[in-house]
Amino acid sequence: FIILSHDVGGSGVKVRPNGFNTGEEQSRTIERIGKSLRECGEFALNYGQQLRLEVHGHGTQDPAVIRKIIDIADNDQVLVCWNSNPAEVQDGSIAAPFRLLQDSFSDVVHIHDLYDEAYPYRELFSLLRNIDYAGWCLSESPATTDPLKVMRYYRALWTQMQRT
User: Fold this and answer.
1) What digits encode the pLDDT tens for the residues 132-157?
2) What are phi and psi of 65, to 5 degrees?
3) Residue 12 · residue 5 · CB < 8 Å
4) Rounded Cα gap, residues 107 and 134, in angstroms
């Protein structure tokens, strides 16, 4: 996938720690993932590609776990893909988990339904602005029968949220 991404002009590939293995100590899983990403990151460097570790999976979507994995990987090609998970919200804010990972963000952030008030998207955009984030926000929204109309609404909401 790293070679394919390079060959088609991409800048990286997304990987996910999709949860902890039953019967394996969590610390062992974290170490194994981190070391594997370090090795893959060395390979990715030769192709100018990022490995985007998505904040994802049962237990592994915890930003503290992702921080440990990134620290073990210790490779500039291994970066974080923020996923806008509901579990990141602590007392209505994502500031603490965001700050834990912000120095390792890739050029991709996932967002979901911007109209969902349970997730503080305005705060997310403000935090991204504060770190001079210049990457992409990719929408993981459900399919629709009228994509152009939905994209227009989405753009309008996106633009409005950028102003605050």
Assistant:
1) 999 999 988 888 999 999 889 888 88
2) -70, -45
3) yes
4) 7
